[in-house]
């Protein structure tokens, strides 16, 4: 039995979230406060035996607003017309929650979860699920359930009756000058009464989740699942003063599943009782206590007529007492070089990993072949350094696969995501102040594999490799900047520290180096995740072109620009067309999600970043030539690091263009950019195309 899918409607910041489960491990990744814990809390409430509450924080605020706007006039009319408690049923409930199907029920859109479970017809015994078959199609091997929070009409009426006087008084108090505040509290009271009347209910149904049959209660649904969950706040401590011994307790829980251990524990109490009984220790304790308490007993006899009897301490040692003592004093230790070290000796990261291993082993032994077995781990990276995170997630993936386990691992660790790969990944991203969406990048990979197109197969390999080398951080980013080389990265990162880009610097920006050919490969992933992205690249027209007319008629070699431009233009673009494309803001693509930034005629007709920067600072175009002596002076005055060619043969003071200078400096671009930064010239030398791109990204 495997979980296939959950469709979650109207829960906290999620209007709708579709969570597809892998057969083994599903990685649920997202930044802090994106909604990972919300989803896990909901699933835990559904499947756990513990009593779970449902409150106003679990419902989208706009749903409650819609409801109160509809029902408030009904409440106002009822209470202001001096109706009594006896009229609640007929005059109020019948208008809000009519029992007949003819009237509209005024309900809050509360949480609903659609669950699909699949079974293997050759391997799985479905005796626990047999009663929930809704489709007799031989090709259908799934069960479908709905877990919902619904208003209980009887309970709602009871709550209204209990709060009748309070509600009525608050309506009459609205004449107070603080009416706005009083009205808010009144409406909050009505919503709270409604929510306190909600109960979880379960149905089994068809694959469209329409033909619903009620289950007896939620425990009937929960009995179909063997659910285990390790939360992020694990009770571990590396302080030697800690006496909780959580690793020890977890190890004892695990070994108690072993018959050999249990046999030993059962035999030990008898062995420990023998010397206690044989040496008369209990008798000696009684005699010693009688002597110690003699004065107290004498004083008591004076006040109650000698009816106290002999007060003493006695020993009652049972097998249960001994067994409990053995388990309490048994602790986990590390045997290292002949010494026994305590739990705290290895640090939190190592203890955290061992704790999760033990939980997995215990869960493995508790698996029930007749149920859906699912194991959730919240943020396993806690207390682990990056290398340990990589190793552990790879171990988890292999462990789940080998043991045929199914589960979810939530994380906000880039290392975890990178090691797991895109095929296991589900991503939660914030898309508003209190709104999140859930994305499934693995669907992108599946579609690419199934397309049969060679370019798509290459794209699959591209994503796998680029995630592996560390560009997985894009899934956590607020925005992304794709750039060609180190000089662009150095310049942009320094620019973001400037006051004009303070708003952008406060966001999490993913910096991804893509060269001049591969930025286009990210387009589908950018669109899937809805990440606002700036692509900074070079125009790369013919190096021999220096005059404006030559430049405008030149063709480019940059694959990224040609690919994006080619989406709406069939011909191979010339520079003049790309100038027009940018000036008309047609380089802003995919509903303002992607901005392709490159040099234009307003950047001194430059073809590279360095040309644009030097052209702006020295106020010269690419066709201008300066004498070698002039370049030497400019270099000295600016303190910028760039190379100047030697004088040409038979020339005392040769002339060189910007392009000549940069050709001579081609191996020292990083040194050049460091000199820009160290001499605090980033603002003065910031090219126009980068400035416009960053301003767009900041919006």
In words, what does this structure look like?
The chain has 699 residues and is an alpha/beta fold. The chain is built from 28 helices and 21 strands. The strands form five sheets. It has a six-stranded antiparallel beta sheet with strand order 2-1-4-5-6-7. Strands 8-11-12-3-13-14 form a six-stranded mixed beta sheet, sandwiched between helices. A five-stranded mixed beta sheet has the order 16-15-17-19-18. The two termini are 48 Å apart.
Give me a quick take on this structure.
The protein has 699 residues and is α/β, with parallel strands linked by helices. The protein is built from 28 helices and 21 strands.
Features:
about 700 residues, alpha/beta
Shape: globular
N-end to C-end Cα span: 48 Å
Q: What is the mean predicted local confidence, pLDDT? A: 83
- Helix % is 40-55%
Largest sheet: 6 strands, antiparallel
Give the strand tally. 21
Spatially, the strands of the biggest sheet line up as 2-1-4-5-6-7
Mind telling me the C-alpha Rg? 36 Å
- Report the uncertain regions: 236-244, 339-346
| Oligomeric grouping of the chains | single chain
The number of helical segments is 28
User: Helix/strand/pairing class, anyone?
Assistant: alpha/beta
Strand content: 15-25%
Write the layout of secondary structure elements.
Layout: E1 2-11, E2 14-20, E3 25-30, H1 36-47, H2 61-80, H3 88-96, E4 112-118, E5 142-151, H4 153-162, H5 164-172, H6 179-195, E6 198-205, E7 213-214, H7 218-222, E8 225-230, H8 246-255, H9 259-278, H10 281-292, H11 294-304, H12 319-329, E9 334-336, E10 339-341, H13 347-366, E11 372-378, H14 386-402, E12 407-411, H15 414-420, E13 425-432, E14 435-439, H16 441-450, H17 454-468, E15 479-483, H18 486-495, H19 502-505, E16 509-513, H20 523-529, E17 532-536, H21 548-552, H22 559-565, H23 575-583, E18 588-589, E19 594-597, H24 609-618, E20 625-627, H25 628-638, E21 655-657, H26 658-664, H27 669-678, H28 688-698
Parallel strand pairs: 3-12, 3-13, 8-11, 11-12, 15-16, 15-17, 17-19
Antiparallel strand pairs: 1-2, 1-4, 4-5, 5-6, 6-7, 9-10, 13-14, 18-19, 20-21
């Amino acid at each position: 039995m495997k979980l296939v899918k959950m469709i979650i409607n109207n829960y906290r910041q999620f209007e709708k979230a579709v969570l597809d489960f892998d057969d083994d491990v599903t990685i649920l990744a997202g930044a802090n406060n994106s909604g990972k814990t919300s989803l896990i809390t909901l699933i835990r409430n559904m499947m756990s035996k513990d009593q779970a509450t449902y409150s106003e924080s679990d419902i989208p605020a706009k749903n409650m607003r819609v409801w109160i706007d509809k029902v408030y006039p009904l409440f106002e009319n009822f209470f202001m017309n001096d109706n009594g408690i006896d009229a609640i049923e007929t005059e109020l409930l019948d208008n809000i929650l009519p029992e007949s199907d003819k009237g509209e029920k005024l309900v809050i859109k509360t949480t609903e979860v659609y669950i699909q479970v699949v079974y293997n017809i050759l391997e799985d015994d479905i005796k626990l699920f047999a009663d929930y078959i809704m489709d007799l199609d031989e090709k259908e091997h799934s069960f479908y359930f709905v877990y919902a929070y619904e208003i209980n009409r009887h309970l709602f009426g009871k709550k209204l009756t209990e709060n009748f006087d309070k509600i009525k008084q608050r309506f009459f108090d609205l004449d107070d000058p603080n009416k706005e505040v009083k009205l808010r509290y009144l409406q909050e009271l009505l919503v709270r009464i409604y929510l306190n009347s909600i109960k979880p209910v379960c149905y089994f149904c068809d694959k469209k989740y329409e033909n619903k049959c009620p289950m007896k209660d939620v425990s009937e649904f929960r009995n179909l699942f063997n659910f285990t969950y390790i939360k992020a706040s694990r009770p571990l401590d590396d302080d030697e003063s800690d006496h909780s011994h959580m690793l020890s307790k977890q190890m004892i829980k695990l070994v108690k599943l072993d018959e050999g251990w249990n046999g030993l524990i059962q035999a030990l109490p008898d062995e420990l009782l023998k010397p206690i009984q044989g040496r008369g220790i209990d008798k000696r304790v009684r005699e010693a206590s009688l002597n110690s308490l003699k004065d107290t007993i004498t004083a008591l006899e004076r006040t109650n007529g000698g009816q106290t009897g002999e007060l003493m301490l006695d020993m009652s040692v049972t097998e249960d007492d001994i067994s409990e003592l053995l388990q309490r004093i048994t602790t986990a230790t590390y045997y290292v070089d002949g010494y026994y070290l305590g739990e705290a000796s290895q640090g939190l990261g190592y203890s955290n990993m061992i704790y999760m291993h033990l939980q997995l082993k215990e869960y493995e032994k508790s698996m029930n072949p007749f149920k859906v077995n699912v194991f959730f781990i919240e943020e396993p990276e806690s207390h682990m350094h990056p290398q340990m995170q990589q190793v552990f997630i790879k171990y988890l993936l292999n462990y789940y696969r080998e043991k045929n386990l199914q589960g979810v691992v939530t994380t906000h660790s880039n290392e975890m995501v990178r090691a797991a790969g895109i095929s296991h990944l589900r991503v939660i991203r914030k898309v508003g102040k209190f709104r999140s969406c859930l994305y499934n990048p693995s669907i992108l990979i599946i579609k690419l594999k199934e397309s049969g197109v060679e370019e798509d197969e290459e794209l699959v390999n591209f994503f796998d490799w680029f995630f592996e080398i560390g560009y997985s951080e894009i899934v956590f980013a607020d925005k992304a900047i794709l750039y060609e080389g180190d000089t662009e990265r150095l310049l942009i990162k320094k620019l973001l520290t400037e006051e004009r880009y303070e708003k952008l610097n406060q966001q999490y920006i993913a910096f991804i180096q893509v060269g001049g050919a591969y930025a286009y490969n990210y387009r589908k992933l950018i669109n899937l995740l809805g990440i606002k992205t700036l692509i900074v690249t070079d125009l790369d027209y013919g190096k021999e072109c220096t005059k404006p007319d030559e430049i405008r008629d030149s063709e480019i070699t940059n694959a990224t620009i040609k690919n994006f431009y080619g989406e709406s233009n069939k011909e191979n673009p010339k520079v003049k067309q790309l100038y027009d494309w940018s000036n008309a803001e047609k380089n802003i693509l995919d509903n303002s999600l992607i901005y392709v930034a490159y040099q234009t005629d307003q950047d001194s007709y430059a073809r590279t970043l360095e040309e644009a920067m030097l052209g702006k600072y020295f106020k010269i175009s690419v066709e201008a030539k300066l004498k070698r002596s002039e370049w030497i002076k400019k270099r000295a005055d600016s303190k910028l690091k760039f190379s100047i060619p030697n004088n040409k043969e038979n020339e005392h003071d040769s002339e060189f263009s910007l392009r000549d200078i940069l050709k001579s400096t081609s191996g020292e671009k990083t040194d050049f950019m460091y000199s820009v930064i160290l001499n605090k010239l980033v603002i003065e030398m910031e090219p126009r195309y980068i400035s416009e791109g960053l301003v767009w990204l900041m919006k």
